[in-house]
Amino acid sequence: MSVIYERVALIGLGLIASSMFWAMKRGGLAGHVTGYARSEATRDTARRIGLCDRVVDSAEAAVKDADLVVLAVPVGVMGALAEAIAPHLKPGATVIDVGSVKQTVIDEVGPHIPEGVHFVPCHPMAGTEHSGPESGFESLFDNRWCLVVPSEGSDEDAVLRVRAYWRALGSNTEVMEPGHHDLVCAVVSHVPHLIAYTMVGVADDLRRVSDQEVIKFSAAGFRDFTRIAASDPTMWRDVFLTNKEATLEILGRFTEELFALQRAIRTGDGEQLHAYFTHTRAIRRGIL
Ligand code: NAD
């Protein structure tokens, strides 16, 4: 493959940014990659493991001269970060973010992007429960989807190039409207994380079942189901605070279904339970 952006700046050196770096390296997609993260310990780790061609001590220094700037920090700090780097962006550069929520990011980052710089919001639908600079790997984006959420006035060439970049990283791309994106992600990602966190909390709260028993006997359901409850608390706090409406809508629907099943269990309605599980099993089996 060939270079898509000559100079790339990665801001935030966690799971997503580090995976982007290794995937860029694998494909030879960038001439030079500069990295920055807020914490000195993260920058030191990045230097030690060779994450980025150069790691600098400020976001402003990282974006200077960059053709592509990637905002890969928790959603709650995207706006302040955009404000800080805005005066240092190169005319003609493209800024993308990889945040899990899109409407809030667009509202908070968009106004800071200077005239002549292109902003193309993105969300790679790929992740693990691990975080930090050492958690990334080159194949994270392979055969996954990246949702691209341009605004009406977005420069078409800039959007096409961003899509080509994600394809070169290994992903398919689809363009989506921000409100719809946030609802889709509430269903397929955000609420499932909330429920996983809750299940661990419930297990911990039970007095008649010890934490040791939970750990010892969680071979099947609990272990599979709660893997994502090990995910980064800052990232997920920000997701729920910024995707409030869609999360509450899906959570409301989830509670209704749960109450219906609770009632079926209480009244001994095996027919309802069987029909429900047959229906949902057919849907789940369609997901590879
Ligand atoms: P992470 O916790 O692994 O890394 C975040 C990095 O950002 C850390 O290095 C942290 O030091 C740095 N950081 C925090 N505040 C900063 C600031 N103000 N300035 C500079 N650096 C700062 O997180 P991640 O999983 O890589 O997530 C990054 C973004 O990608 C988030 O917006 C998240 O919503 C999104 N995302 C995550 C996943 C996932 O499954 N983890 C999937 C898709 C998208």
Question: In brief, what are we looking at here?
Answer:
This protein has helices spanning 15-27, 40-49, 59-63, 78-85, 103-109, 156-169, 178-205, 211-217, 221-226, 233-242, 244-267, 270-285; strands spanning 5-11, 30-36, 54-55, 68-71, 94-97, 118-119, 122-124, 145-148, 172-175.
What would you note in describing this structure?
- It is a single chain.
- The chain has twelve helices and nine strands.
- With about 290 residues, the chain is α/β, with parallel strands linked by helices.
- Strand 8 (about 145-150), helix 6 (about 155-170) and strand 9 (about 170-175) form a beta-alpha-beta unit.
- Helix 4 runs parallel beside helix 5 and helix 7 packs across helix 11 (about 245-265).
- The two termini are about 30 Å apart.
- Nicotinamide-adenine-dinucleotide binds near residues 11, 99 and 123.
